[in-house]
Amino acid sequence: MRYAIEDVGLLIKRAQHRHHREIDASLATIGVSLVQWSALREIDRNPGASMHRLAELSFNSDQAFGTLMARLLRIGLIERLQGPGRVAHHRLTPNGTDLLRKGRRLVTKVLASSFASLDEEERDALGTLLAKLLA
């Protein structure tokens, strides 16, 4: 079957939208949103990263990410560490680490269900094609 390029783009967007809705609903059961969990994941994956870089990695504007960080600080999921000069770094608190771990199990479950109709070879091919597209 041949797909028009517009249709391929729309299929990718629909898959992403479905994942976001289902993951957000699943994460809500542990009291965190996908946006918050994504920030926790990127802080954990990228120790010492700037707020700007963390905003990029979590698909946020700098302003939105700053507001998000303030909320995560206020509810005790991250802590701010002073670096040299005005540089600040962030890391997860034990509560943030626990929430990230619980959330990862939920996210993995949603994605496993979503991709269940693809066998391992098809998932690898899809991953290869998407990585090539984004390179």
List key phrases describing it.
135 residues, Arc Repressor Mutant, subunit A, single chain, mainly alpha, two-stranded antiparallel ribbon
Which helices and strands, and how do they pair?
Elements: H1 5-28, H2 34-45, H3 51-57, H4 62-74, E1 78-82, E2 88-92, H5 94-114, H6 120-134
Helix pairs in contact: 1-5, 2-5, 3-4
Describe the structure.
The protein has 135 residues and is mainly α. It has one domain: Winged helix-like DNA-binding domain superfamily/Winged helix DNA-binding domain (Arc Repressor Mutant, subunit A, Orthogonal Bundle), CATH 1.10.10.10. It is 68% helix and 7% strand. It is built from six helices and two strands, in the order ααααββαα. Strands 1-2 form a two-stranded antiparallel ribbon. The chain starts with a helix and ends with a helix. The model has no long low-confidence stretch (mean pLDDT 94).
**Compute the gyration radius: what is it?**
17 Å
Number of domains: 1
Describe the largest sheet. Answer: 2 strands, antiparallel
Distance between the ends: 25 Å
Integer average pLDDT: 94
What is shown here, in short?
The chain has 135 residues and is mainly alpha-helical. The protein has helices at residues 5-28, 34-45, 51-57, 62-74, 94-114, 120-134; strands spanning 78-82, 88-92.
